[in-house]
Amino acid sequence: MKNFRNLISVLLIFLCSYSSPLFAHREDYIDETLVYETLEKGEVEPEYWLDFGYKSDADSDKNIGFLQHNFALEYGLTQHWMIDGRSSIKTTRHEGTQFDSGRFETRYRFFDEGTKPIDVAISLEANTERKEHGRQEPAIEPRLILSKDFKRLNLTLNLPEEVFLRTGELAFVPAFGFRYNTNGMLRFGCEMRYNTHSHEDSVIPQIWFALPHEITVKLGYSFGFNRNEESFGRIVLEKGF
After folding, report:
1. Residue 108 sits in which domain range?
2. Residue 72: how many CA atoms within 13 Å on its side-chain side?
3. pTM assigned to the model
4. 3-state helix, strand, coil in the chain (%, to 5)
């Protein structure tokens, strides 16, 4: 955790130190790292995510495979303000198909991209996630989003504080992502995330394909570390209207 805090400090200094021409980078990272850009006013973007992977079972010392379907919808209220919602259904051999998680998020960005040394946005999320024994854990999550473009390279830092409504406990869940845009349709990058409450780490290398007609395909794989017992591949399909 100390190393992660040191990394955040270095990134903040780095973000403040440079200024360069900018390129738009609307699409969110593949997991929980939100970008600065929001949808345009009146724009609608449905999304479908497919997760396939396994979770370690300490009792049986075996890996339990799972398949998860995620359905999301984003909408631009104004040029700087958007909302989105997502629900997830998970299937395992032992538990069958269950509602896994849901969230509703609203995000607001200040100013136009690139007008300040660092692009700053805020978001507020209400969510619920299925924990052990099928119990849902509701929470709210305010988040600060810091972003900087260096020509084709984007650096994004998320600083969210999750508040669990049943217990009142807090979890600081910092996330950092970087992405490089090539001259064509290909983009690649990675994101890293740490949960101070559950002590779960994840590293997710990923790749984007920006296709015609505002279609985006994302591929990635989440490697779980520390107490994170899940590792999975993810395929994301987005279409803008």
Report:
1. 2-239
2. 24
3. 0.86
4. 5, 60, 30
Q: Domain containing 10 — which CATH number?
A: 2.40.160.40
Confidence of residue 62 (pLDDT cuts 50, 70, 90): confident
**What is the length of the chain?**
241
Tokens 């590293």 locate to 203
What whole-number distance in Å separates Cα of residue 215 and Cα of residue 167? 41
Query: How far is it, in rounded angstroms, from Cα 220 to Cα 189?
Result: 9
How many independent structural domains does the chain possess?
1
CA distances from 204 to 45, 144, 176, 233 (A): 23, 21, 11, 9
Q: What is the pLDDT of residues 76-87, one digit of tens each?
A: 999 999 999 999
Q: What confidence tens digit (pLDDT) does each residue in 20-52 have? A: 433 444 578 999 899 999 999 999 999 999 999
Alpha helical stretches, state H, the chain: 2-16
